[in-house]
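Notebook p. 47: complex prediction with S-adenosylmethionine.
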Amino acid sequence: MSDTPGTPRGGSRGTSPSSRRPRRPAKPYRRPQKDPVRILAFEALRAVEERDAYANLVLPPLLRKAREKEGPEKFDGRDAALATELVYGTLRRQGTYDAVLSACVDRPLREVDPPVLDVLSLGAHQLLGTRIPSHAAVSATVELARVVLGDGRAKFVNAVLRKVAQDDLDGWIARVAPPYEDDPEDHLAVVHSHPRWVVSALWDSLGGGREGIERLLAADNERPEVTLVARPGRATTEELLAEEAAVAGRWSPYAVRLSEGGEPGAVPAVREGRAGVQDEGSQLVALALADAPLDGPDAKWLDGCAGPGGKAALLGALAAQRGAVLVASEKQPHRAGLVAKALAGNPGPYQVVAADGTRPAWRPGTFDRVLVDVPCTGLGALRRRPEARWRRRPEDLDGFAPLQRGLLRMALESVRVGGVVGYATCSPHLAETRAVVADVLKQVPDADLIDARPLLPGVPELGEGPDVQLWPHLHGTDAMYLALIRRTA
Ligand SMILES: C[S@@+](CC[C@H](N)C(=O)[O-])C[C@H]1O[C@@H](n2cnc3c(N)ncnc32)[C@H](O)[C@@H]1O
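Predicted complex, structure tokens below:
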């Protein structure tokens, strides 16, 4: 990486040696103004870039510390909201902003120092993605650059951002995105800030024309609502609906949504573990498996990939109401610890085990219902993890493929004849959904897909079945996938 920033495109590098000009009197030095909100946003972006940190894990402790400070650096709610918007918005829109910045800098962006690029992206987001007036966005970002990069680089930032400020987002997109007619996927990748291969994979899975994929990509750039689950027998939706800013869920009878500003940590039932934070798509997967029709006993349930325990806690509460026991198994011991925490206080019997689901510690045919919510690329949860789309690579699919197949094979071996397996992913990528199910069913002939759609009552636009794919733009959920499979012999 270069140690010096690039020169703004059209800049004056090498054209006007200052020695030939009369010297201007030097401006008196002015200390840079420290803006704690933008400094914190910059620190969070650096952690994401440098340490491969997750924004949703890095930001909360930084905000907590800023709220605990005394004096002018102490954050109030509006400061925290602005810092969050700056970090999430900058990361989500990075693809679009990179295309714009590339047009304003005279060298490839990869040759611009990463901290300088982070400041430029923060500035581009304020200029093109927020209502902050242009002059304020430029001057605040240049002051930030003076504090975190030094005066020399701040001049570069100033010059680049002045170019960015010459147009609005639509104007820039018209200039930098290839026309849809020439290259639909590249066009959508720039307009909606997704890597091209992700646009392509989402479109393959969604099908249809331009409108649907555009709505999906736009939904990925929206901040998702916080959804709570009232764990049955432990909390009620009425109790959660009494909270300020709470509205009923769309599909799950146990879901309550918190609108902007709702703090799950402030809800007593959440603090006591009787309710939890859980996307409605994740709730629907657990409910569909629990409601799948079954002949014979219904006493032993397995969650074979349970960490950190969202679905296990809902399954555990439902199992308790039916007199069934839940075994929640998770390979990584520390995540098994999280499952134990999520299940603590469950009203019925349960067991948490740290075990490899591809080499089960139980006998074949032990369970009546089995869920395997397998590790995956997470391309269905891009709303929540703003940096994830830039980290994932197509090669990651090959890494997950054998594990996904191994876990489904073992799930089918663990369920009794007549029992039901739910195969779930929080990715809609066909290589992680239908391809896995089809491959495994070729090897395990005594198993049939069953229609999952009637088990999500009231949920529209579930496709042709028998499996189910949820979508952020159609259902307001993460893009969860579920196939239900019955062992027949
Ligand atoms: C998508 S997450 C499951 C999310 C969980 N069902 C929930 O709702 O909270 C997949 C989990 O599978 C675990 N895992 C990975 N390999 C495994 C294996 N061989 N056996 C069991 N669990 C495994 C991962 O550690 C991860 O916690």
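Notes: The CA atoms of residues 5 and 116 lie 7 Å apart. The chain is about 45% helix and 10% strand.
Next step: compare against the earlier run before touching the bench.
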